[in-house]
Amino acid sequence: MNPAPEMNPQIRYKSKKLISFMKSLSGYTIEEKRVLLEDPKLFFRAIKESPKYLSWNSLVEDVSCANTTLKKYRRGELTIRGDIFLKLLSYLSKNQKQRLISKINLVNSNWGAIKGGKRGFAVIKEKYGENYLEMLRVKGQRASLNSPLFITKPMEITIPSSITMEIAELFGAYLGDGTLTKYFMRIAGDKRLDKYYFIYLSGLIKKNFGLSSTIKEISLSTNQLCLEIRSKRFVDYFRHVFQLKIGNKIRNSSKIPEFIIEDKELAKACLRGLMDTDGSFSRRSTYMCLAFTSHSPILLGQVHNLGLKFGYFSYKFKDQVGSNSSGRIKKYFSEVGSSNLRHIVRYHEHLKNNRFLYSEETLKYFPEYQNLMLPYYGPVV
């Protein structure tokens, strides 16, 4: 029999009841455990009041959970996975954790399915009788033995033999506005403005990894759109090659690897991905401004240094780096370019008509630009 694993020192408390509960969560069957909260709204309210809490999006990244799933946990629509509950628990004080013990129940992962299954079988038995129920059981046994539906295969993926400019650009897009969990990568955007950009990125993923990705709306009440790649091997590839960690990018000090910075073409491709997600081309007074914004001091410093090295950027202020020089912006577009229509349209319409378009105004120009060869490096002919 394997010995019980050592508990994380961060959850070693005086309360024997709490220690016993933590051991049950931290054992070898953690994926089979779920937590049923008496008052999930109160639990998440306490998390939001924690000094560790930054924002809802940061919480989603930190606990490596899909945004919609975490919201269902908050509303009490789902029991909480044991490993995710441990991460959420780290936001609470020692006293809050001890008070929580009496308000939780630990259940197996198939708890809901068992409850629903029992109710379903009771209805079938009452309506059709025991003989019909036995027939279903026999039929189900045959299916489980013979049906190919029960044979699961890992998703096929092509592992690239080298780091291409397209992969570097995709990595830059992730660093700009991406989320990484154990099983998927997600890049966020605006459903009005980033649809064509996500179609472009999904093409890069298909070409370099042989994987299909999904473009979907995160919420009907907002303009959030996301590109999602569900493949553990895809995630493992990025974690290994780019030394990425699961969870919050700022807390994990995610950055551009040296081998990208030292390669001029890979660095420019990565910069393009960063600018197309967290960058902007906008009006500042009477002139055009190119800017990159990040709350990560490490990443901001790297982008600033690349911008200075290649002659694109001229300033750094708080959480933003960029340039107001039309010459530098033209140099950036001719050498780095853009794959996002929202930036391309604003830049090119300014060159062509000396107009500063608002983001929403660019939408009517998309049909004119949608067949453009990407990345775009200069004026459209």
Automatic annotation (TrEMBL):
<dbReference type="InterPro" id="IPR004860">
    <property type="entry name" value="LAGLIDADG_dom"/>
</dbReference>
<dbReference type="Pfam" id="PF14528">
    <property type="entry name" value="LAGLIDADG_3"/>
</dbReference>
<dbReference type="GO" id="GO:0004519">
    <property type="term" value="F:endonuclease activity"/>
</dbReference>
<dbReference type="InterPro" id="IPR004042">
    <property type="entry name" value="Intein_endonuc_central"/>
</dbReference>
<dbReference type="InterPro" id="IPR027434">
    <property type="entry name" value="Homing_endonucl"/>
</dbReference>
<feature type="domain" description="DOD-type homing endonuclease">
    <location>
        <begin position="170"/>
        <end position="312"/>
    </location>
</feature>
<protein>
    <recommendedName>
        <fullName>DOD-type homing endonuclease domain-containing protein</fullName>
    </recommendedName>
</protein>
